[in-house]
Structure formats: C-alpha cells, structure tokens
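User: Here's a chain of 280 residues. Predict its fold as tokens.
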Amino acid sequence: MRRTLLAITALALVAAPLMAQTADDIVSKYIKTIGGMEKIDAVKSLRRSGKFTGGGGFEAAILEENKRPNLVRQDFVIQGMTGVRAYDGKSGWKIEPWEGKKDPEPLGEEEMKMIVEDSDFDGPLVNYARKGNKVEFVGMEPVEGTDAYKLKVTLANGDVRYYFMDTDYFVPIKIETKRMIRGAEQEYEASLGDYKEVNGWYVPFSVESNAKGSQFKQKVTYDKIEANAPIADARFVKPAMQPTQPSAPDASNVQPKKPEEKKPPATEEKKPPMAQRGVR
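Assistant: Prediction complete.
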C-alpha cells in the first residue's frame, strides 16, 4: 500500500511519530499533505476519465465531472451505450439506456442520497465543521498489516464513515461506510491508492470497493484527471424529453381504396373545315 504513495514523497513532509493525536491534528496534516487549502481552493472543476472493472471481467469506460460548488455528473459507457447520473445542485436525474430508457428520469431516494455525497467537491474532511460533519479520532487499527489512524466521520445526513489515515502521509488509504438502505444498515469499504498531483492537489487515481466481507470487488482506475477543465453548467442540468414520434396507423383497420373508374372521353364537337386563302 505504501508503494502507491510514492508520488507524495516530493512534498518532503516529515513523518510524525506514532503518538497521541487529535482529530483536528490529523485532518490538519492531511490537508497540508495534499497541497494545502490554497491549492485546493484554486481548483474549480475536476474531470476524471478512466475504466471501471467489475466481477467476471466486466468493464466500462467512465467519465466523472465535478464543479464547484456542488455539481456532479457521472457517465458510464457500456457496449456502446452511455448512461448518466447527475446532480445540478438541486435535483438529480439519470438515463439508463440498458434498461430500454432513453429519456431522463429522477433518481431514486438512495441514489439521490449517494450522489449528494459525491457532490462534495473537497470531500467530507475539508471544512468538515462548516459542512455539519463531525470527526472523531477513535484510535489505531491495522490496514494490510500496517497501523493507521482511525477517524470516525459522521456526516450531516447521519451516515457514518471510518477513515483510515496513513501514519506517514496522513492521507486516507481505506474508507468504511455505513448507511441505511431500505431500513437496513449496509456496510461498504473502499481502498484508495496511487496518489498523484493534479494542479498542486494530490488525489487518488485508484479506488477499489466492495460490500464489507464480500469477495466481489469493483475497481475504478483513472488514467487522466484534469483540474479546471472548462465544463458548462448545462452538463449537469436534466435534458428535455425527446418528442414522441407519431405511431404508424394500424393497417388492419384501414379499408383499401377502390380503383377509380375511367370515364370515356367526351365527344369532341365537329367543325366545318376552314377555307384556305388562295385555294379555290
């Protein structure tokens, strides 16, 4: 896991010894490690492109776009079909062509909850108190055999996440999420790695996730992340419904036309021959 963080060593941040920490200490060092608030605030939009890999070798191309303050759009290209999930800061919508649906429709309750979380441009740790989130340091816990700082993050909506922070670089290497779905608590976990600098801000280029305890994992690998790419606000707005094409008439109810009867030509009135001049 540490090898995925090599790009961060350029920051020359002195690793802190394993000692008593507070939540604010860890969050403060995390923000410093990834570039500092000035670098973070300078990024107004992010465009991520890459590949999604699921079970059984399933793959899809993905494009994720975020724009301040809270706009988000996620495109999935599967077998030539492009699905969309988006949030314009007020309402969420989706297009799912693999379900035979080409027109946009509203997101479901759980989908809406998740995309609102995804719309947090900086993530829940940055300016957490201002966002109504609560962060607590709850001790140390090993991740793949290496100790990590464990933060309990209670989001404003009540969902709980546990962030496992690397003790050398203070970046999250694992996140566990608990959320209520249809009245039942569900747990998920995600491993983050391959941190790289984008416009002075260090972000993960690899995220592997699964339901906690499940062997079926999904992985997103970004091959390109662009900062401050020009993204029009219209990209996040629900498009208008496509006009419905008029249906063809039912031929079984249409009576064939009778052929038109040909009428005999009218008899032309006979006229006397005209006398030619000079002819007798």
